[in-house]
Each structure stands twice: as C-alpha cells, then as structure tokens.
Design brief:
The complex is a heterotrimer of chains A (491), B (289) and C (225). Chain A is mainly α. Helix content of chain A is 77%, strand content 0%. In chain A, helix 3 runs parallel beside helix 6, helix 5 packs antiparallel against helix 6 and helix 19 packs antiparallel against helix 20. By secondary structure, chain C is an alpha/beta fold. Classes of the chains: A mainly alpha (491), B alpha/beta (289), C alpha/beta (225). Chain B: This is Selenate ABC transporter substrate-binding protein. Chain B: Belongs to the phosphate/phosphite/phosphonate binding protein family.
C-alpha cells in the first residue's frame, strides 16, 4: 500500500497533481446535478437526424448575407485583435500590460457583446469590439510568450546592453517568433469564426442568428445547412487565410461591411447611469439596500459555485477525452486515410459550437448539468486532442515495438504528459470563462444570472456578475501559471 | 454567376442603406416570442400596411431576445414595438412618455396553458393542479408575460412558495415553440405556454396531442400591445401618433390579422397594464426590494 | 599607451543552470590590463574561461566593441544581408532600419557587398541565414562583427569552422580593421603568428600573460597538457 501511494509524498510529482485534480473532479461530480431524465427523445432525434441528411437553405440571399457578416466580423476582429495583441506582446514584460491583457480576456465575448449592444445597438461595431477585446488579450499572452521563448543569442550577438530598441526587436527577435505567431493567428481566425457564429445567438446578424432560430423552431434541415456552411468556412481557412490574400481580403472586409454603430450620447449616459449600483443610484434606505445586497450575494454565490463545480468536472473529463482522442491524430497510432479521418473528426468536433451540442444533449438526457458537461468536454477535448496529436508527430517513434495499448501506456502518455498538462492548464481559464457563459443557455452558472440581469435591464447587477466571472477566470489563470511553473518548468 | 450577381446586389444594398439612413425612417420591432420566419412574414406585411397608411418609410427589424426589443425601443432604434404585457411595462418604464396605444381584441382576455407530458400522469382539471409539485417545469422566456410572469404568479398563489421550491427543476426554454418541443420530448414534464401559440401549433399538426396535453388554464389577463415612444410627434411631425393609432385600430386585412392571430385591434392605454405591473412587482421581477 | 580596461582581483562566475544555486566560478583574475593597439590572443583548453573573460571585457567596454560570439547567433529567418546589417542597428535611426528590413537601400547594399566580398559570401547575401552551412554562417557572423565598425574587436573562436588557409586570411583582415583585438583561439601557431600578446588560461587561472616573442614552445605544451 505504501508503495502504491508513494507518489503522494513526492514533491513535484505529476501523478500527485493529476490525482488531486481527479479527486476534486469526483467530489464536484458528487455535488453536481447530473440526473438523467429521459422522456421520449426519439421523435426529436429522428427529426434532427433527418434534418442532418437533408440540408436545405431556405433563403439564399439571407444565407449569403449571414456568411458575409460571419466572415467580415471574424476577419475584422482578428486583424484588429492581432494588431492590439502584437503591441501588447512587445511590451509584455511590463506588469500593467499583462494585467490589462488578462482583464480583457477574462470576460467572454458574449458578455462583451451584451455590454456593447447596450452602447452601440445591434451593430457591426458592437460585434467587432466584442471579438477584438477578449481576442487581443489572448493574443497578447500567446504572442508575448512566443517572443519570450525565442533564441536570445542573435539579440545578444549584436547588442551589449539589456534594454533594446525597436530596431533590435524587428531584426533579432520578431523574425524568430514570426512563424509561430502566424500559425497561432490562423488558429485564432478559426476561433473568431466560431465566436462570430456564437454572437449570432444573441442577435448579431451572423450564421448563428439563423442557426439559433432554426434550432429553436425545429427546422433541422435549415440548421444542418448552416452547420455545414460553418464547417466549410472553417475547413476552407487553410486555403484562403494566407498572408498574400489578406492584403486584399482585409480591406475588402472593411469595405463590404464598414464598422459602424449607433452612437447617441444620451443613450450612453443613460447606460452609464444604469451601471451605478441601484442602492446608490436610487438612494435606497439602508434596509432595502441590504435586501438588494443579499439578493445579489445569493446570485454571485450560487452562480460562482455552480461555475466552479462544472468547470472542474469539465477540466478533468476534457483531459481524459483529449488524451484518448489525440491518438486519432497521431502518427504513432494511425496513418493514411485513418489519420485523415481522425483529424477530420476532431476538427469537426471542435468546430461545433457548445451551444448546439448542449441543445442536442438536452433533448436526449433531459435538463441537468450533464448536457453542458458533455458539450464542453467534447468541444474542449477535441481542441486539446487535436493539438496534442499533432505535437506527438514531433516525438521520435518508440524504440521498443509493442501493441497500441502498451505503446499508449508506456511510451505515448509518459513522453507527452508534460505537454498535455501544459495544454490543460492553458485551457483551464477558457473552460471557466465558457462555463460561466453557457449559463446564458439555462444552466445556473454565472451566465444564467447575467442573462437574467440583462433581461430585466439591471445593468448594474449584470456588470457586477460579469466582474465576478472575470475574477474566477483570473484566479484559474494565476493558479494555472503557478502550477505550471512548479510542475512544468520547461513550459 | 448567380453568386456574383448576389454579391453585387449586396454591395449595392450597402450603399442604398447608407443613403437611406439620412432621412428619418419609422422603424418598429416585436418581441421574438415564436418562430422567427413567421414573425418576419407577419411584420413585413404590417410594415407595408403602415407604410401605405402613414405615407412614410416603415421598416421592421427582427431582434433575438426580449431585452433586445426593449433596448432598441429605449435607444430610439425603433419607435414602435409589439410588446408582451411585462416587456411593455418594462419598456414604458425605460422610456418616460411612451404609451400603449392598441392591443389585440383577444389580448384583453389572454391566458396561459400549463401543458404536461403523458408520462407525468397529470389529469386536466379546472382547479389548479396541485399534483404538479415535485415535477420538472419549463417556463418560456425569462421576461415573458404568458410564458413566465402569469404562470409563476398562479404557482406562487397556489403553493405560497417560489417555483424553484415547488418543482424539482425549473428551466427557461427561451420561447413558446421550444417549450412545446421540450415537453413533447419529455425533457421537462410540465410547461407554461402562451395559449395562442399552442392552439395554432395544434391546429397545424405540429403537436402530438397524445404525448402532450393541456392540464390547466389560467384566468384571463391583459397581454400583448403596441407601444409607441412619446417623442414620435417631434420626430415625424405633429399628429403622427394619432395617425399611427388610427391605422392600427383600423387594420382589417384578413391575412395580417390571421397571422397574429387576432380578430382585430382595440384601444389600450398604460392603465390597462397596471395589474401586470403589480404582479411583476409582487414576484420581484421589477426593481423592488 | 592608453589603458582601455583594467581588471584586478576579479572572480568571474558563470550563471548556474538551476535557479537558486550559487553561480560557478569560471575564472579568477589577479590582474589584467588591455592597452589600445594590442592584438591579444586568448589560449587555453575549452572550459578554461576564455568565453567568460571575453564576456566580462565586453561588459566593461560596452558600446566600443565589435562582438563575434562562438556560436554565430544568426536569425535563421532573415536574409544574410539583414543579418550583417543588424550589426549596425545602433548606428542608424529606427526609421532607416525598418526601411532596410522591407526595402534595402542601394547604399547599404553596396556597403555590405564590399564587406562580404573578401569573406567569400558576396553571392549569399540574399539567401536565408538558416539555409547556410556552418562555415558560411560563421563568416556571416564575422561580417556582422566587422559591420559594427567599432575600434575594438572581441572574438570567440571566430574561424573555428573554416579551413586553415581561409581562416588565417580572414583573421588577418579582422586584425587589420580593428585597432585593438582580443581573440580567443584554439589554434596556438596561428595565434603566435598573428598576435603580439598571449594570455593563457588554465584551471580557471591565468597561467601566463606574455608578449608573443617571449612565449616558449614549452609554455604552450604545458598549457594543453
């Protein structure tokens, strides 16, 4: 027994770390609401299946309009976010830059959009800003780390002082990181397409707008057509998201759908006034303010509790799913058409918005946290699995010949485990942010209360709750960073 | 080639849109309480009708949620809106001076159905069905009058407790059509739904009435209404509000009325909805602590 | 002659790999002066502390030295031209530098071509540095050091990847173009041939510091034992 749990006494043991995370997830699972209440989902599922096989675009003009909006939102968003993120990355060694970047990305784009829609109406400006802000925070972080990881010898070879100017940056640092930055930007474009679809769910005129309607009203043929469109857009990125074409595409995007919003200073002033907490704005009596605070505290407490509960379960399940499915996209296990199939499967899975997966599981499993858990696990797991599989190609094949199962256990997992944990830690803050957001769809995480607050025009409450979700995200970010430093010094 | 033409049309429409936005345009919206394609079809007709009657450029813009409709109204992106009882109250609170001017004939005596899945084993009754305690329940949208406010009011009255205490699980489906779909699939055992949407869905054969049926009907209340901003006369010339009210009350086009479905529109004012406002306050949906 | 730098009772350390542990002692120097106009060769086995001493001198002489490190340290993604040009970033304004990155000016092109010619890399100027062989990369690094246009040269094994004849020719050029040079070399005959002073390092100490004329073959032998 003592040897079996011997790893618990080691410091810096990755097994110990994994064990505690798994234990925490099991504890959360015991506390979470995960009933299965199946009724008679057959009918709805049959309709969905039939719709999937008979995609149909009811209105081509509307379809094209939505495609153009989806593309222009994401293209404008990514280009602007890349510019801002790049600027931040250059100064990423400054603490305040890192803090601003972390704050920007701690708020989900859906929440940013809900705020900007209040200020600029349902407009291109609101949509583009909602993408630019969180994306620039994320890109600042990744660009910044990519610039930190480069070979510093060229810089030292031509410069004998610690501080270096703009010219040195462009000659001896940027070229070394540019390739990685480009790849990441391309990946971000994929995320942006997904985000702009999700923004459609709350009213911006992208594919998501019509997808939500189609799903809500059970027009699954129209929904599947939109879904296939989304997959096609994401898959085709590799052919047209090229530096050379961007010189044409970006100006075209700004020309076809100029960024504009409805700005009325009176509306903005009204919005600002509404953002002042009600007791101060309305000058309530102490007792009434107390009731308000209690009511707000209950929402923060319940929302944060459910958010963390769900996120911890999802984090561990995501890791498990990713580790297993990464073999589908790894040269150590598959090749040829099977590899392409696995690659495609994971790409499709990660491209499906969680909203959609959640809805399907809701029909099948009934209302509880389970649909959300499964939806987030599949989506996030596919992202990490795809990345990890691709990364495993760089590892030399195992020296000892063995069957796939023992190869997985004795070679694959041990060699990739550090990298795998690093990906999971990176994903942690994103999972928290998304869990909070998914509440908009009905599970009682913070998003549920945020959505309710917007529903009843309580912007003060909405902002406080958004801030609470940002704090959770920031906490996950800082714990992950600390764990990464302690357990994974190489990453 | 067709794609190219479509692209060119779109490019052209960008410019016409830019040119249009210079002169004031009368715009209205409606709360998205059901199938959007149907809403667009219905309100496109209304826009044409109003355009002719008012001699103005009238446009309908669809929105995705109840608060989006209220926000658009408050921000003067729309000057007129087809609100539900509660959203109308919220909107008129947000825009001082705005008025309810007309409601559907049926909206004077609106009602909500509680519907249940066969497996829940609930019987239809005239009395409030206390047996629903402990079941799972889905409302419609959080801000809906018929899908949330009134059913919640009667649930609280019957049990003297908040719904989440009474039921084993409470959800918000988003809209009436989805409430029906979720109860029909068995995801929830009981649902609260707008009677007009239900009757229409049954008539068109979208509902399997063997699987899901009405078990209780609320007493009647005032619901949907047209609400207009107080400053339309300043924006569109004196007498505009009166002309608009007349146009709505005189709407007799059969196909438009059937799409609502309403038999006609009758006058309304803000006081018509005082009861709704009181109810909302009593269950804590309007700022009152 | 002017004294450029003077070290006395100096313990030079090498940063430790693991955080928290003390740095290693790389070299102890009792006394060392460098005068303008000298051509100094640093001799000694690898690990004797040559690179550490050079790095220290570079820090003492900040801003006055052309620096040619042991590893070329080129930016593999950039063209050879830009790698050489990066030696002179401090001499030009940021605007000129950025312009040259996108659109190299004629003046700098001829300047660098003239510099590259005797090093035998003139026809490689528009290749990417990452695609060159080890010897070619070393010559690019040399060109970059030359283009720094500083009076003082600090070079660490600058011709280690070149053959003997080529190496000697290029080393001569290097010495000619700088008034003062300090070069770490592993080739003792070459050092004795071209330099006027030898500093020999062994076991983290200065073994001897003599004018070339006074260095006895036995001394050299003892150094590499």
């Amino acid at each position: 027994m003592s040897t079996a749990i011997g790893f618990l006494t080691q410091t810096r043991s990755l097994r110990k770390l994994t064990f505690y995370f798994a234990l925490l997830a099991v504890a959360c699972l015991a506390l979470a609401d995960i009933d299965i209440s199946t009724g008679s989902p057959g009918h709805e599922l049959w309709l969905m299946g039939r719709g999937l096989l008979t995609p149909q675009v009811p209105d081509w003009q509307q379809w094209l309009d939505a495609v153009i909006y989806t593309l222009t939102f994401s293209l404008q968003g990514v280009v602007l976010a890349a510019a801002v993120g790049f600027l931040f990355a250059v100064y990423y060694h400054l603490t305040w830059v890192r803090v601003v970047a972390a704050l920007l990305r701690s708020v989900h784009e859906v929440f940013w959009a809900l705020i900007f829609i209040q200020i600029f109406g349902i407009s291109t400006l609101a949509g583009v800003l909602a993408i630019v802000l969180p994306f620039s925070g994320t890109m600042a972080k990744v660009y910044g780390e990519q610039l930190e990881e480069i070979d510093s010898r060229p810089a030292r070879a031509v410069h004998d002082r610690a501080e270096s100017g703009l010219s040195h940056f462009f000659y001896t640092r940027l070229p070394l990181a540019l390739h990685a930055m480009r790849n990441y930007t391309a990946y971000r474009m994929e995320c942006a397409i997904r985000s702009s679809v999700v923004l459609g769910f709350i009213g911006l005129p992208t594919l998501g707008f019509h997808l939500e309607t189609a799903l809500r009203t059970g027009e699954y043929s129209a929904a599947s057509a939109l879904l296939f469109t989304l997959l096609a857009l994401i898959y085709s990125l590799r052919y047209w998201f090229r530096a050379r074409l961007l010189w044409v595409l970006v100006p075209l995007a700004f020309f076809v759908r100029p960024v504009s919003g409805d700005w009325h200073s009176a509306n903005f002033a009204q919005f600002l006034r509404d953002c002042i907490p009600a007791p101060l704005r309305e000058d309530w009596a102490l007792e009434k303010s107390g009731r308000w605070l209690l009511w707000l505290g209950e929402q923060i407490g319940a929302g944060a509790w459910n958010t963390v509960l769900l996120a911890q379960i999802v984090l561990v399940l995501t890791g498990l799913f990713a580790l297993l499915t990464s073999t589908m996209n790894s040269s150590h296990f598959v090749s040829g058409w099977r590899r392409r199939l696995g690659d495609g499967f994971l790409l499709v899975l990660r491209s499906l918005p969680e909203y959609l997966l959640n809805f399907i599981f809701l029909i099948v499993l009934g209302p509880s946290m389970l649909p959300a858990i499964l939806a987030m696990t599949l989506h996030n797991g596919a992202i990490i699995g795809h990345l990890l599989g691709k990364h495993s190609d760089e590892v030399a094949p195992a020296v000892m010949e063995s069957g796939p199962l023992s190869r997985f256990a004795y070679f694959y997992v041990p060699t990739l485990y550090q990298r795998f944990l690093a990906y999971c830690f990176y994903r942690w803050e994103i999972i928290i942010r998304e869990t909070a957001m998914l509440g908009v769809l009905g599970i009682p995480t913070l998003g549920f209360y945020i959505d309710s607050a917007f529903e009843f025009l309580r912007f003060d409450v909405a902002l406080i709750l958004i801030a609470a979700s940002a704090v959770l995200t920031l906490c996950a970010d800082s714990i992950a960073r600390r764990l990464r430093r302690q357990f994974l010094p190489a990453y | 080639m067709r794609l190219l033409t479509a692209i060119l049309t779109l490019l052209a429409s960008v410019y016409t849109f830019a040119a249009d936005s210079d002169r004031p345009q009368f715009t209205f919206t409606a709360i998205p309480d059901q199938n959007e394609a149907e809403l667009v079809r219905r309100f496109q007709q209304v826009a044409e009708y109003l355009g002719e009657e008012l001699g103005a450029d009238v446009k309908y813009i669809p929105v995705k949620s109840y608060p989006a409709a209220i926000t658009a109204f408050r921000n003067n992106q729309v000057q007129l809106a087809w609100f539900g009882g509660l959203s109308g109250v919220q909107a008129r609170k947000a825009v001082p001076g705005s008025e309810a001017i007309a409601q559907g004939y049926e909206d004077q005596f609106f009602k909500t159905y509680l519907i249940a899945h066969r497996d829940a084993g609930l019987e239809a009754s005239d009395e409030f069905p206390k047996a629903i305690a402990g079941k799972t329940l889905t409302f419609g949208s959080k801000g809906s009058t018929s899908g949330r406010l009134m059913p919640e009011f009667y649930i609280r009255e019957a049990f003297n407790e908040a719904p989440r205490e009474v039921f084993s699980r409470v959800g918000f489906s988003g809209d009436h059509s989805r409430t029906i779909a979720l109860v029909q699939s068995g995801a929830y055992e009981v649902g609260a739904v707008n009677y007009a949407v239900w009757d229409k869905a049954v008539a068109s054969g979208e509902v399997d009435t063997d699987l899901v049926s009405v078990i209780w009907t609320t007493p009647t209340y005032a619901d949907y209404q047209w609400t207009v901003r107080g400053d339309v006369d300043e924006q569109f010339g004196p007498g505009f509000k009166e002309k608009l009210t007349r146009a709505l009350l005189n709407l007799e086009d059969e196909s438009i009325l059937q799409s609502f479905p309403r038999s006609g529109f009758v006058p309304a004012d803000n006081d018509t909805y005082q009861a709704i406002e009181n109810t909302a306050k009593s269950i804590g949906l309007l700022d009152d602590f | 002659m002017t004294i450029l730098v003077e070290l006395s009772q100096c313990r030079l350390t090498y940063p430790s790999d693991t955080m928290g542990e003390a740095d290693w002692l790389a070299l102890e120097v009792d006394h060392l002066t460098v005068r303008a106009g000298e051509r100094i060769a640093l001799l000694g086995k690898s690990g004797a502390g040559k690179s550490t001493l050079l790095r220290r001198l570079r820090r003492e002489l900040a801003g006055q030295t052309s620096w040619c490190p042991q590893e070329p340290g080129l930016v593999p993604q950039l063209k050879v031209f830009h790698n050489i040009f990066s030696g002179a970033l401090d001499r030009h304004s940021a605007l000129v530098n950025l312009r040259n990155l996108l659109l190299p000016s004629r003046r700098h092109q001829t300047e660098i071509a003239r510099l590259a010619e005797p090093l035998g890399i003139a026809d490689l100027l528009w290749s990417k540095a990452g695609e060159l062989s080890g010897g070619q990369q070393q010559r690019v690094a040399l060109a970059r050091a030359l283009y720094q246009h500083k009076p003082l040269l600090l070079a660490d094994e600058p011709v280690s990847a070149l053959d003997r004849i080529q190496g000697e020719a290029i080393l001569r050029q290097l010495l000619q173009r700088h008034t003062t040079s300090i070069i770490a070399l592993h080739n003792a005959p070459l050092a004795l041939n071209l330099c006027d002073r030898v500093i020999a390092l062994r076991d983290r100490r200065v073994l001897f510091d003599l004018p070339t004329s006074e260095v006895h073959p036995d001394n050299i032998q003892r150094l590499y034992q």
